[in-house]
């Protein structure tokens, strides 16, 4: 760890932790949507929208703090990238839930539950990792595991696409369902972006 003579703005750590905790909330709403009747999904989507707005507020708070701080705990670009990637995760999860409601999807294809389980696990790991940015300790296993989960998500996504194009669904339904599973895959990618940014920060600070 590099020795510093100047104090650093430490509120970023709390804001990153709050952003990650909000993503856990989003992943739980995804799980809830998965098992909900179609009649209950609109209310879940409203709660997800509120969580997404809370995520936006957290991201804006980080950007405001970044613009008003002379000393930051690590590189400004990395702070910006980390906040943006966390925000992307929430955006993708909210979009997936919203599309399920807007498209009036009766039944999600088999395999989506596996996608969401991967996202829920990645959310838990990310929330556990954010407080460790203070000391840059116990982070290696985090980014290794999130990268493994993203590889798993890729495999699930490919199987889902194969299932969607097996002739069981009509063309319009394929388009709807494909957009939803693609967005869930983008959420998995965004978790990897967060993990990669954390690894970059840790390497620079070591």
CATH class call: Mainly Alpha
Main beta-sheet strand count, sense and barrel state: none
Given the structure, what is the number of helices? 6
How much helix is in the residues? over 70%
CATH superfamily: Phosphate transport system protein phou homolog 2, domain 2
Low-confidence stretches: 1-7
Structurally, the number of domains stands at 1
- What coarse outline follows from CA principal-axis ratios? globular
Question: What's the total count of β strands?
Answer: 0
In N-to-C order, the SSE pattern is HHHHHH
What is the fold-level CATH name, i.e. the topology?
A: Methane Monooxygenase Hydroxylase, Chain G, domain 1
CATH architecture assignment:
Up-down Bundle
What's the alpha carbon Rg, rounded to whole Å? 18 Å
> What is the typical, i.e. mean, pLDDT?
93
How far apart the termini lie comes to 5 Å
Structural class from helices and strands?
mainly alpha
Strand fraction equals under 5%
Write up what this structure looks like.
The protein is an all-alpha fold and 206 residues long. The protein has a single domain (12-205), classed as Methane Monooxygenase Hydroxylase, Chain G, domain 1, CATH 1.20.58.220. It is 77% helix and 0% strand. It has six helices and no strands. The chain has helices at residues 11-35, 41-68, 76-102, 112-129, 140-164, 171-205. α5 (140-164) packs antiparallel against α6 (171-205). The protein is globular and about 55 Å long. The model is unreliable at 1-7 (pLDDT under 50).
């Amino acid at each position: 760890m590099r020795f510093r003579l100047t104090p650093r703005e430490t509120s970023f750590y709390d804001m990153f932790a709050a952003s990650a905790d909000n993503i856990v909330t989003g992943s739980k709403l995804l799980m809830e949507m998965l098992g909900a009747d179609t009649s209950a999904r609109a209310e879940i989507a409203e709660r997800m929208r509120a969580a997404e707005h809370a995520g936006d507020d957290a991201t804006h708070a980080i950007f405001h703090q970044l613009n008003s701080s002379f000393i930051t705990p690590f590189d400004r670009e990395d702070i910006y990238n980390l906040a943006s990637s966390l925000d992307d995760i929430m955006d993708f999860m909210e979009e997936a839930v919203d599309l399920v409601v807007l498209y009036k999807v009766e039944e999600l294809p088999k395999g989506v539950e596996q996608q969401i389980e991967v996202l829920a696990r990645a959310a838990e790991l990310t929330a556990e990792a954010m407080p460790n940015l203070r000391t840059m300790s116990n982070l290696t296993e985090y980014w290794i595991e999130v990268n493994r989960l993203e590889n798993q998500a890729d495999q699930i996504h490919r199987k889902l696409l194969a299932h969607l194009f097996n002739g069981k669904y009509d063309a319009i339904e394929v388009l709807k369902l494909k957009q939803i599973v693609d967005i869930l895959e983008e959420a998995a990618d965004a978790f990897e972006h967060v993990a990669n940014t954390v690894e970059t920060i840790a390497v620079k600070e070591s």
